[in-house]
Amino acid sequence: xxxxxxxxxxxxxxxxxxxxxxxxxxxxxxxxxxxxxxxxxxxxxxxxxxxxxxxxxxxxxxxxxxxxxxxxxxxxxxxxxxxxxxxxxxxxxxxxxxxxxxxxxxxxxxxxxxxxxxxxxxxxxxxxxxxxxxxxxxxxxxxxxxxxxxxxxxxxxxxxxxxxxxxxxxxxxxxxxxxxxxxxxxxxxxxxxxxxxxxxxxxxxxxxxxxxxxxxxxxxxxxxxxxxxxxxxxxxxxxxxxxxxxxxxxxxxxxxxxxxxxxxxxxxxxxxxxxxxxxxxxxxxxxxxxxxxxxxxxxxxxxxxxxxxxxxxxxxxxxxxxxxxxxxxxxxxxxxxxxxxxxxxxxxxxxxxxxxxxxxxxxxxxxxxxxxxxxxxxxxxxxxxxxx
Length: 388
Ligand SMILES: Cc1cc2nc3c(=O)[nH]c(=O)nc-3n(C[C@H](O)[C@H](O)[C@H](O)COP(=O)(O)OP(=O)(O)OC[C@H]3O[C@@H](n4cnc5c(N)ncnc54)[C@H](O)[C@@H]3O)c2cc1C
Prior knowledge:
The protein is an alpha+beta fold and 388 residues long. The chain is 50% helix and 13% strand.
């Protein structure tokens, strides 16, 4: 077992850090303040391969392992949480299309998603189907002899919506429950699609979140991913990797919060001394570092399990997402506390880190649902076999 990063991993890490340092971090506060989605900057990451990190190299992706991809996402999130998280969602969608689309559709769309010519959104959640996504009601109907489906329904909380070009939409086409769900590649500019307002959110202001309405939207039959009834399975496969990404984006933010706090406590004088001299502050710093490293290592472990196609990979991804997002939120919140009142001002980045990180405990499956996945595995399958 070797915990050191390889030369390749170090090179990707350095490239991502340099990009984040130059293009993301200096602009992050302004994008947050103005709710600006920096599409041009996101497209630029395509030149580095960061829009198709784990997409198959046959379709211009870098074809990296999930672990290497996580290393890149962490550095991007160190620069801007909301932008990195959107890039991670785009990677998830690009991978899904690369894996499951028909050859013709895949060859047409995936290279353009990888280059950044097209941006994408993942459309699972509905107003009445959040955690219980298998109960979704958006319908896809195909009449005998027709070569298209008609989509009707509503997707809510969709990241990037209104600014993206390609949607992967999970819709009911063949019966009730998760097995009746199919997944479709949908042109986001199709007739019959309309978008709600950009939601006013606590954080993630540098990316839009909108409801999408489908009214008799025609989708070519060839845009079905895999076969009918496989859509929920594909959606969950996408989310295994997605949860690693959301978890490591949280770690990247915890890391920058920790670095900011470490510098601050050595400068800030109270009671005639730097507050770093106070043992309670030192203990806080020690816990913050310990927890940041623990979160990162748990993500690396889950990514490794996914790369190795371990049968317990889904449970590891759920454990890692839950733990990394909870610990990272705690670290960022402690970093804010160490800044005292200044941490609460938006002249400093701490309040933004805390606001941005809060949603990582909610989306791509809430942290309660992560516990459902893990405990179900422990109680209903083969106990702790393979889980250690
Ligand atoms: C900013 C943002 C961006 C998002 N982006 C996307 C996106 O791009 N695409 C997309 O499809 N979705 C997206 N989502 C949706 C997100 O995945 C859902 O909000 C999330 O899955 C929870 O669903 P819900 O909001 O309906 O909450 P609910 O499912 O109503 O949950 C409410 C509460 O009940 C708890 N709960 C529910 N069921 C259980 C259970 N069985 N056991 C224990 N507790 C339970 C939950 O944990 C939660 O605390 C986004 C959400 C946000 C806020």
